[in-house]
User: What shape does this take?
Amino acid sequence: MAKRFILVAGNIGAGKTSLTERLGDRLGWTTAYESVRDNPYLADFYADMRAWAFHLQVFFLGHRAEQHLALARSPDSAIIDRSIYEDAEIFTRASLALGNVAQRDYDTYWRVYRMVVDRLPPPDLLIYLRAPVEVLLDRIRARGRDIERGITAEYLSLLEGFYDSWVAGFDLSPVLTIKSDDLDFVHKQPHLETVVRRIDKILAGKEEMEFPRLGG
Assistant: This one.
């Protein structure tokens, strides 16, 4: 089988980590995740977004660039939970919209970001997980992370708008959109197998499509 390099994108609580884990186990691929526990800025950011937004995004830019480049160059197939593109297209834009990042800092970040990503190999596929904001909130509350207690429906809705605009214009690879609110790939193996088949079909045909809703 040819080497594959896939990115999993989506709002907070959309199921990115769970899908990355299951696909990695199922396909025998290398998996990589966003830095949460060892992130020196994340807790401070959620406590005071205005003070720490720029620091957090610079950290993520470096972390994800290293991660992306290492796995894209690896001879083994790999799948990454969250992409480097989301940091700029979603979270930095949200920080600017909320007034947590000044325009000057935003412009500086984007100059560095463009210089970095223009030199990165593109993925073979972007998987976009999408779920209603109320579902995202329920999942966030259920996992009970202290650093996420301040996340609101308004913030998730803002991110969702940026996600939809970004994905609509994404042209570096095919995009598979999955509505994850009724897709249980953690507990229902047939759902996971359907995802695997769809990934194989898209990679073989290089077609962009939206994943149908699943029931049962």
